[in-house]
Write a structure and sequence with these properties.
It contains 13 helices and six strands. By secondary structure, the chain is an alpha/beta fold. The chain has a four-stranded mixed β-sheet. Helix 2 runs parallel beside helix 10, helix 7 packs parallel to helix 12 and helix 8 packs across helix 13. It is globular. The chain starts with 15 loop residues before the first helix and ends with a helix. The structure holds fe (ii) ion. Fe (ii) ion (FE2) binds next to helix 6 and helix 9. Fe (ii) ion binds next to helix 6 and helix 9.
Length: about 300
């Protein structure tokens, strides 16, 4: 009698399909949907149902409309092909499956092409609350609904332009150590900017309240509430000088968050980031986190 084997799963930390792709050096992969185990789908269903009431309370309206427009399933992991069919006509963005970490320049360059590098694995059932690396819940439930909003999608594209400007700006520097030093500072500034806005940004909501638009908050059951309600969090109007010089720690709830008034304001700020880069104002930002790793730096050096 033929035996049907249960799928091995695409679980963070245990996904042979993804590990093999990584070992082959393949960055772009397929979603291999049939490999998800029952437990993987259950993890999605649990994460999705648990966070719903918090989204209704704390998420910005663009995000809530995005979740509706994408019609994300509550009971199983979404197929990226279905998500993309709904997303494409709205802003041209597409979620593109990747095998793991995407080096800085390539990541921003993807955004410029309206592609969002998307993790396909999902966290194990016993680690629902904290995972340092992204998983499909963070990427698809936290980021992708924001990509249905035109003004926000345009901001991501501008980040991609900034990465190209960083390359142009430093390409002519003969002294390779100085070139690497300047790029390291620029990448640090861009990463901090991205971190405190796209990942952990807060926004003025209707009626003067505060809502979340950062995907690190939108995909975290615990932190979305903490970010908006807790007395332990400092919340300040966004300020460019501060953003690019403030260290960002990834493994704890954020003690400091920045509030934007609108996506128009954020779009204008990314433009200013690019101008500051051209003026050399990002060449010497405050030291500290995040560390710029060798792969990120290399991706910018090689892009020249
Ligand atoms: Fe993210």
């Amino acid at each position: 009698m033929p035996q049907t084997l249960a799928p091995v799963g695409l679980t963070t930390g245990h996904a042979p399909f993804v590990e093999e792709a990584r070992n082959r050096g393949d960055l772009y992969i397929t979603q291999a949907y049939e490999l998800y185990s029952e437990e993987n789908h259950e993890a999605w269903a649990k994460l999705f149902s648990r966070i719903q009431p918090r989204w209704e309370r704390y998420a910005n309206d663009h995000f809530l409309r995005g979740v509706e427009a994408l019609d994300l399933p509550a009971d199983r992991i979404p197929r990226l092909s279905e998500v993309n069919r709904r997303l494409g006509p709205l802003t041209g963005f597409q979620a593109r499956p990747v095998s793991g970490y995407v080096p800085g320049f390539l990541f921003f360059d993807c955004l410029r092409r309206r592609e969002f590098p998307t993790t396909i694995t999902i966290r194990p059932a016993d680690r629902m609350d904290y995972l340092p690396e992204p998983d499909i819940f963070h990427d698809v439930a936290g980021h992708v609904p924001m990509h249905t909003e035109k003004a926000f999608a345009d901001i991501l594209v501008r980040f991609g332009d900034c990465a190209h400007t960083a390359v142009e700006q430093t390409a002519g520097i003969r002294d390779q150590r100085e070139r690497a030093r300047r790029l390291t500072n620029i990448i640090k500034a861009m990463s901090r900017f991205f971190w405190f806005t796209v990942e952990f940004g807060l926004m003025r909501g209707p009626g003067g309240g505060i809502v979340a638009y950062g995907s690190g908050l939108l995909s975290s059951y615990g932190e979305i509430e903490h970010a908006i309600e807790s007395d332990e969090v400092q919340r300040y109007p966004v300020q460019m000088e501060w953003l690019i010089n403030q260290g960002a720690e990834i493994d704890r709830y954020q003690p400091l968050l920045f509030i934007v008034d609108s996506f128009d304001q954020l779009f204008e700020m990314v433009g200013r980031l690019e101008r500051w880069m051209r003026e050399g104002k990002l060449d010497n930002v405050a030291p500290g986190l995040p560390e710029v790793n060798e792969g990120d730096l290399r991706s910018f050096m090689d892009a020249a």
